[in-house]
């Protein structure tokens, strides 16, 4: 940490907020709510908006527009008003570029970094911020890949002073999967396709034992490389073992290749539950496999039916989804709520710091932050490890949209083991 003593958190009054509910913001009309100008806060925002992971960043332009409008009057902290500049960058799904972009924003003098979506984005950005002493907050990746994947050791103090994450972990996946898989009768034999990357290695190390402890037999042919084009050996193994549950965490193009081959070689017909993650999160990814996408099981880290609002903007989940569909002419995606929650939590930390220009104060505020967000409560004092909050993930399924819908697919919630406040809206259907 910095040699400077961080300023303690400040509890702010709720007067002078935007009508939309953006606590701590001054009125857009130009009235300063008894605050004095205090310069400009520069906040970096890095996500993948093109390339293989582009589905994660597809909605970020809209979310940032909503946030910028809410922040147009500035951010009020301790009687001072700070203008806010959010500088967004596209990693193009390239981890090396993600690190370079982070270093560029750090050199440009940002006060805080926000990053989202997969270890390929979050880890290189977080590493750059940790090295430079810049507070960083991220979301949407298994927390084990963020924490242990960057060098932390179980049972030892955190090596990270500046970098924080709130996101789901393998325990949340296990709870959701065990809950979801119990909804249909199967032989409890799981075909596991986990890649040789940060996500796949974390899932193999931490999720697989939990599934086995719950009574599932996991058939794991071993890690495969991203970009593999022939999965015949794995498919043959899954058919031989009559695996009625399929589980995978691939980059989106790899799943399309695998699942088409699985259908051609007769394995897809054997599957009762096809549980996919990292891909199949967004409508465009499921539509890429055509009719093979119907009844694919997924898990959601946000859905418009979640009963939470954004404290930064005041928008509800359904309002966010409807606003995006109207503005973009596209179907909502779960990343809408995740990216909005990243902004919710990030600006809550800046407010709680008491002095958002003091990087040490911001980092300390993150370490003790307890705040509402679009994905629910985020409390860094509870762990499961330092620098991390584990957030819910909920079982869901892609089904054929009802007649009259503008879209081909609908994502319905089928279980809620990790957050009972989220309403279940449909029964799980067998694949095929």
The residue fraction in helices comes out at 25-40%
Q: What is the CATH homologous superfamily assignment of the largest domain?
A: Response regulator
The H-and-E topology, N to C, reads as: EHEEHEHEHEHEHEHEHEHEHHHEEEEE
What number is the mean pLDDT?
Answer: 91
Keyword list:
disordered N terminus; alpha/beta; 432 residues; 32% helix; single chain; Rossmann fold; 16 strands; 2 domains
Describe the secondary-structure layout.
Layout: E1 36-47, H1 60-70, E2 75-77, E3 80-90, H2 95-107, E4 112-116, H3 119-132, E5 136-139, H4 143-147, E6 163-167, H5 170-181, E7 189-193, H6 198-213, E8 217-219, H7 232-240, E9 245-248, H8 252-264, E10 273-276, H9 283-287, E11 297-300, H10 317-328, H11 335-352, H12 359-367, E12 370-371, E13 378-379, E14 388-390, E15 394-400, E16 409-413
Parallel strand pairs: 1-3, 1-4, 4-5, 5-6, 6-14, 7-8, 7-9, 9-10
Antiparallel strand pairs: 2-3, 11-15, 12-13, 15-16
Helix pairs in contact: 1-11, 2-3, 5-6, 11-12
């Amino acid at each position: 940490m910095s040699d400077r003593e961080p300023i303690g958190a400040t509890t702010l009054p709720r007067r002078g907020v935007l009508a939309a509910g953006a606590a701590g913001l001054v009125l857009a009309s130009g009235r300063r709510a008894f605050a004095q100008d205090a310069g400009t806060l520069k906040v970096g925002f890095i996500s993948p908006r093109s390339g293989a992971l582009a589905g994660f960043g597809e909605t970020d332009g809209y979310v940032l527009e909503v946030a910028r409008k809410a922040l147009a009057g500035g951010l009020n902290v301790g009687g001072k008003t700070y203008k806010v500049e959010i500088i967004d960058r596209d990693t193009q799904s390239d981890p090396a570029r993600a690190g370079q972009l982070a270093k560029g924003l750090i050199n440009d003098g940002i006060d805080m970094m926000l990053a989202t979506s997969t270890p390929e984005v979050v880890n290189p950005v977080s590493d750059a911020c940790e090295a430079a002493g810049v507070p960083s907050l991220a979301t949407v990746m298994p927390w084990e890949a963020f924490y242990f994947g960057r060098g932390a050791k179980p049972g030892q103090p955190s090596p990270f002073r500046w970098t924080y994450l709130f996101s789901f972990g393998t325990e949340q996946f296990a709870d959701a999967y065990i809950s979801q898989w119990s909804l249909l009768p199967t032989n409890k034999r799981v075909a596991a396709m986990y890649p040789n990357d940060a996500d796949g290695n974390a899932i193999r190390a931490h999720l697989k034992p939990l599934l086995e402890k719950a009574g599932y037999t996991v058939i794991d042919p071993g890690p495969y490389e991203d970009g593999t084009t022939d999965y015949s050996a794995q498919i043959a193994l899954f058919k031989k073992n009559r695996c009625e549950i399929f589980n995978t965490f691939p980059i989106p193009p790899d799943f399309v290749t695998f699942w088409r081959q699985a259908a051609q070689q007769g394995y897809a017909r054997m599957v009762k539950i096809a549980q996919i993650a990292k891909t199949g999160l967004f409508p465009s990814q499921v539509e890429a496999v055509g009719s093979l996408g119907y009844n694919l099981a997924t898990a959601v880290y946000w859905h418009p039916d979640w009963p939470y609002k954004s404290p930064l903007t005041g928008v509800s989940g359904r309002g966010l989804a409807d606003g995006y569909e109207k503005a973009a002419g596209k179907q909502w995606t779960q990343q809408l709520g995740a990216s909005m929650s990243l902004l919710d939590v990030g600006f809550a930390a800046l407010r709680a710091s008491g002095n958002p220009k003091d990087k040490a104060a911001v980092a300390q505020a993150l370490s003790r932050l307890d705040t509402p967000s679009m994905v629910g409560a985020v409390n860094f004092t509870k762990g499961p490890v330092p620098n991390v909050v584990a957030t819910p993930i909920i079982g869901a399924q892609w089904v054929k949209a009802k007649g009259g819908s503008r879209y081909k697919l609908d994502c319905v919630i089928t279980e809620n083991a990790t957050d009972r406040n989220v309403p279940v809206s449909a029964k799980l259907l067998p694949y095929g």
